[in-house]
Amino acid sequence: MTPSRRMRILYVNHTGNVSGAERVLVDVLKGLDRNRYEPVLLCPSEGRLGAEIRALDVAWKPLPTVGARFSLRPDRLLRAVASMGKAVVALRRQIGELKPDLVHANTIRSGILATVATLGRGTPVVWHVHDILPKHPLSAAIRLFARSSSRTHIVAVSHATAQAFCGGLDFQGRARTIHNGVDLERFPLKASGASAFRDKFGIPQSAFLVCAVGQICERKGLRELIDAFERICKGVPQMHLAIVGAVVFKHEESYYNTLREMAADSRCSERIHFTGELSNVSEVLQGSDLLVLNSSQEPFGLVLVEAMSSGTPVIATRVGGIPEIVTDQVNGWLVEKGDSIGLASKLLNLSFDREMLSQVTQVAHQTTCPQFSLQRFHNNLGRLYGEFDSEHASSYNSAAKLAFSEHVRP
What we know:
Distance between the termini: 34 Å
Number of helices: 15
């Protein structure tokens, strides 16, 4: 890169659908210093991500859809290789035209594509890892592939995600954690008065409202949450449950249908509300008494910080990156994954203990939220980009790197 132009960063996302990783990508681009960096995004045209990025005045170019999923079945593996091969060819062509100084691959699949597409070019590639790499033969191959290229750098959204990705391999300082951040101003503390969210969905203002917010998929543990609610709903007639979110990927539609059937057959079906995806999540959190994130696996958990910022206490499972945010009985509560009975007991007890809810909420808002602010996220990402920016590299010497507080834990 010459000093006469901005550092050009090519962002790659293997899907055009929007879920947690894409929300983070949008936040990255919103906070990018355009005087210093020139962003370009490549992603498939299907889904709304491209439109959201163009609305930020960021250049967008289409990428063939990547349909690769974890499978060792020969037919699926061949389809995955063909899908990724087509995307690699298109990506390599764009890299040749754009000549980026850095490729920021926003998913593991995108990282594979970008590292292959930049072979022979010397372009550094950042793999932004938003998912817990599962125990699978293909995971070992992906890990070894990432480790084999000295141009590949791993940025994980939590220490748990970083450790799962790296496994027992030494990435020689090329792997670190940068926790996600939340724009805390978008999630102000709730104020007294009627909740517009409750009015919209016919939930009494006097009800004790439990909410689950996010993508509807099996790993979010919504079946177990409904089961926990049904176990106690007759004993707490003032409690309602709101499930806020939508299916992002088609293979989860049958799971969603199962949830709807389960709720309809419940003894308290009139108190279980499916709202669909809502644009104003802040309004949901401000109108709720308790947020539950009952995931069987969770790389980070942005909604936990959003709830804490809104003054809404949280219950979450002790999995993945969640314990890096929630300390049990200090700024929220932790339960074991898949334990509907334990979750039900916790919901029952907390619904009658407003004082405890208030104490924990105060600690979460004052102490935890600042640790996961969007400003801190942007600062840490800026440090990372600075290491690849030859014009400014001298300001990011080895001492600064050692001082970077969010490197992967040993």
